[in-house]
Backbone:
């Protein structure tokens, strides 16, 4: 019972950070798309910072819970993608970049706000202080993870769309054409490649080599320079 209670307490320190990070990420895409002329998401009720409107039952709830109970070394999840009709943007090529950057951008903002709120834990009484602090640290870490992962230059991730927006047509077109296959490419890089690597004794984990190093750097930078933790 003690172990179960401990797991529930730990789960409670991850639930809000995960749900807010992945739902507000999508909300930001819709909000910026609407600013630049595409009201598709607004008409569908997706330009909203109400997390319930963006929850995907599997990606927002089931998958993070599976990773948690499997004691995965990292947490991950996703919300329902916000529909964006890039052809309706006033300047599709450049506006697409801002729409794509909005998701990771809001995650960085949330991480910074959480870091600033850590100073307020001094006024939180008793045992709640530790719980509140862990929530904020998890918020920083998870939002940085979502932001960095989504900036990988592979369509349909945000980084892939930014890359398409800034490259000349002759280079952007082949990358844009990858979008229908992007999720299969990601699954191969995230799941298949590490398994193949382990069979031949090589660590080729996309997360270990590409995603986690910048996340750890940014996390430590924020703790050192925004929070002022002595570690």
Residues:
């Amino acid at each position: 019972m003690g172990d179960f209670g401990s797991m529930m307490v730990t789960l409670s320190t991850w639930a809000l950070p995960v749900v807010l990070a992945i739902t507000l990420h999508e909300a930001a895409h819709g909000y910026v798309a609407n600013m630049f002329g595409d009201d598709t998401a607004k008409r569908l009720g997706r330009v909203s910072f109400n997390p319930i409107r963006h929850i995907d039952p599997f990606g927002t709830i089931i998958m993070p819970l599976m990773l948690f109970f499997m004691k995965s070394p990292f947490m991950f999840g996703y919300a329902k993608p916000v529909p964006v009709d890039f052809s309706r943007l006033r300047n599709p090529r450049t506006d697409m970049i801002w729409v794509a950057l909005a998701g990771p951008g809001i995650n960085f903002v949330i991480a910074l706000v959480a870091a600033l709120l850590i100073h307020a834990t001094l006024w939180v009484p008793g045992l709640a202080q530790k719980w509140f602090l862990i929530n904020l640290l998890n918020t920083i870490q998870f939002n940085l993870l979502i932001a960095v992962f989504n900036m990988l230059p592979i369509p349909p991730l945000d980084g892939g769309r930014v890359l398409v927006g800034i490259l000349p047509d002759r280079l952007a077109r082949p990358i844009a054409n990858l979008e229908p296959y992007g999720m299969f490419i990601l699954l191969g890089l995230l799941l298949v490649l590490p398994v193949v690597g382990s069979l031949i004794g090589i660590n080729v984990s996309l997360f270990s080599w590409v995603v986690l190093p910048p996340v750890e750097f940014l996390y430590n930078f924020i703790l050192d320079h925004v929070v002022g933790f002595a570690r």
